Amino acid sequence: MRGLPGITLGVAAALLSGAGCAGSNVSREAFAADANSVCRGYNAKIDAKPRPGVLEQFQDYTDEVLPLMRDTRDRIGDLERPDELERDVEQLLARWDDIIDAAEGLRQGAAAGSDIEIVIGRRKMGLAELQADSAARAAGVPDCVGFNPFSRR
Q1: Is the predicted pLDDT of residue 5 greater than 70, yes or no?
Q2: Overall CATH class of domain 27-144
Q3: In the chain, where does DSSP find H-type helix?
Q4: Rounded to whole angstroms, how far apart are CA atoms 57 and 128?
């Protein structure tokens, strides 16, 4: 077997084996199907929980939904995604992090009996949710719109 002039077979093999390493092989459709499935599961779990109506219920509700929020965020973050969606998905995850952080603040406010902390937390969540929903639509994952469990549709 003859090699390429100036290139040993080992170097050629290394070049060819590395050729497919750049970028993602997943399609937009495959990513969307997986992400929408994760978000549908999240939505079903959140929708099954009764909404808090009074201050005393906010802490318990938040304690229940925070693990679901974190799990969904991590599962979406772990999905392979096409390169062209990287920015949108990173934006989605960053805004979900903002919603989760605000929910933590809301939980602490509820534990302290502070109505104002709940109001502030919900406002922070609302702003981040608008940006997250925009990123979810841009990424082609409409079932991931409405991540904020305190403003359910």
Answers
A1: no
A2: mainly alpha
A3: 9-18, 28-47, 55-78, 86-111, 115-138
A4: 23
